[in-house]
Amino acid sequence: MRIGIIGCGQLARMLALAGWPLGLKFSFLAEPGDTGDCVRGLGELVPMPDGFEAMAITELAEKVYTSLEKPDVITVEKESVPVDLLEALKKYCAVYPDPKAVRICQNRGCEKEFIEGVGAAMAPKIVVNTAAELKLAIEQLGFPVIVKTCEDGYDGLNQWKMDTAGDLTEFLESRDSIVESVVEKRVNFSREISLILVRAADGRTASYPATQNWHEGGILRASLAPAQDIDEGLAKQIQDLTERVLGNIDYVGVLAIECFVVDGKLLVNELAPRVHNSGHWTQQGAATSQFENHLRAIAGLPLGSTEVHGFAGMVNLLGVEVTAQTALKPNAFFHTYNKSVRPNRKVGHINIVHNDAEAMKKQLDATIAAIYSD
Ligand SMILES: Nc1ncnc2c1ncn2[C@@H]1O[C@H](COP(=O)(O)OP(=O)(O)O)[C@@H](O)[C@H]1O
Ligand SMILES: [Mg+2]
Where is ATP annotated to bind (predicted)? Predict the structure, then answer.
């Protein structure tokens, strides 16, 4: 069976690495600017056809499907993919997750509407399109806020924290106009957690235990799983949120939900219609990794157990040069993405597993300290 992946970054790499033992073959669609370094040697790397911008979507879909070597299933490894192309590709093979789910997650405004629609809680927010609307929204919400563009935002990109009227003035003076954005009340969370869920084509679902995450400048730096000290109330909210989301979206594959915990209350931050950085620990920390389970789901194979092996931690390698030689320990595992190092760029991660929660956290903290001395 051949899997076509739209995108060729590290998530595509780790999907392919998980899929080869299952006998799956891969083709990757590289968009302009993608080097393909992450997936080199793991399958066919196919560039977007020449002149694709001017092509009718039906013609483009046929060209893409054929050049991807006629995959049996097409999936995505990032959010910013041409959804119309995904829709058109459904004529040729299964496309999972459904492009409609990808479309919802591509625009923060639509995503938040969906979250609201399923009855899940989130930070107060207002969608704005003009400077006047932005000012009014901040008046209503009150500082501190965070402004995020509705599209093209990831890893803290295209978002601005504002604490004072001066910050707002400075922001507005630095640009001619503003694009559609979500203004959100900045919440004082006690922690961030994420949920990694998977649903198979036959409707069966599985979920990994909640992961606790730490971000720096909007970029994930480290995760720990299972998140500790989840009391009964929070566990109930996690269960309820999982059911509400999966019950309201026609979805096949892995889906991630990022959340804040504020005064014991679970608030949804955002959804990701794909395997997620906060699920990388599952490569060593769970019976089946999120990558394998995504493939099992989209390929119509039985889902694998999400049972965890003790306690797991993950440290992202962000713009730092770390080698296997220094990273590896009997219980520390190195994953490099074959990328050149640039400031803050995700170039790899280290997974740690331990049968003792405290010892794992200690090792996780020591690993973070060794890599990032700030
Ligand atoms: N409303 C908020 N209140 C407090 N912190 C926030 C809020 N929104 C985002 N953040 C912080 O910024 C990080 C990145 O924001 P997020 O909305 O997840 O954007 P991205 O799509 O770039 O991941 C979050 O993980 C969190 O640490
Ligand atoms: Mg996020």
Answer: 108, 148, 184-187, 192, 215, 269-270
